[in-house]
User: Fold this.
Amino acid sequence: MGFTQDGTAPVVHTRSGPVRGAVEDGLAVFRGVPYAAPPVGALRWRPAEPHQGWSGTLDATTYGPGSPQVVREGDPILGSHGLPPFDEDCLTLNVWTPGTDDARRPVLVWIHGGAFVSGSGAMPNYSGETFARDGDLVVVNLNYRLGPLGLLSCASDDGTEHHNVWLTDQLAALHWVRDNIAAFGGDPDHVTVAGQSAGALSTAALAGHAGGGRLFCRAILQSVPLAMPLATPDEALARTAAYLEIVGAKDVDELRRLPWPRLVGATAALLASTMEWGHWTTPFVPVLDGVTAARQPVENLLDGPGADIDVLIGWTAEETAFTFALGEAYASATREQVLRRARDSFGDGAAEAYAAYEAARPGARPVDVLVDLTTDELFRKPTLAFAQARAARGRPVWTYEFTLPTPAHDGRLGAPHCLDLPFVFDNFDKWSHAPFLSGMDGETGDGLARTMHRAWISFIRTGDPNHPTMPHWDRYDRQSRTTLHFDTVTTAVSHLTPH
Assistant:
């Protein structure tokens, strides 16, 4: 390992030039390493391009700026989900490794979530140190373009349409891993890509470019919104036109000259124009453009280029409580309001569906019915359908449901979106700012975190999440339909079906 013997700052030679990191508690850490050219000026809203490299040795001891975004302080669930500074020149990644040697360790690439409008690889929540140290892994996380800078669709002067530049960023990062990770002690042929929420949808989209396992061989999808409708190219360009009107720009050329704070500042108005009561909405969505995204992301892992990738996938029991449980507009919702929302999904069967959800949760308020209905619709039902389809094809897939409720906010959240993250990373100390962990029993939390964290490490290393200190977790199959429940007592549940 070298660097652990005398504390000398490690230097690694990448294809773009040498980088100097730091030694932290026995790990070599490299921060703010460019993986693509800065997407500024003429490269705004253009696919990621290779970095031209640098002369001399790059100081890689501090995080690069995150993608420009709106920071919401005082969020009642996460506290915040963004870490200034921000800048358009944001395409950097971070690496944690136990040794810059030739050990060829398994590699974990983590892609953060945040509805494609928030988050960064610099957030302490997503630090790779626990996985690197506990699993003897090389861990990479990254920034990618968010919000209008990453998801607006624009046409160039020659009429070429550019969609999903955020995805081209992530692909560029995976190519950087393939080309450089061996120098950091990693194995480019043993890469797992993992993500949560938008990061999980990203992982499924990236599988469309992973034919033959060239970029990664395993995928972990946490709380992936598989039922989220994606845009057609025409719909995407219409959204760009609506955004132009909000910003007050006459065309994309004028938009390209505006400073990024003005672009980001218009996000809230676009969200307001796209919101529907009782629906989980986001101002920007990926585009099925036939080039960067040729099919629905989930199809990549069924019969598409990622069909041979091993998959671990799951959800939290009350995913959409994250959006609906605390806001007054939903907390005080009436039965009739939720029934109207249910008609969007069940049509004439809305009343019957409402009654079924109400019966499944004794004492349920209308908002509880809304949470269960939308969690099923967006996360639980499509995840189980995906697992059934994978199993029917003989493809390996493990499914889980995180059901441990948080006592925060008088228990109204249940087990919401994002609650599994501190358990998976086993890093509660990095989440001290997050109100949704308030009141969590330390002994219970630590025990479940060890179980989940070790399961993820085992899957990354071997393709099987089982380890000696947890109940046996069978692959999902068409007969038993086994799903592991992570809770105060972790158990395998068979014949799990949607409500």
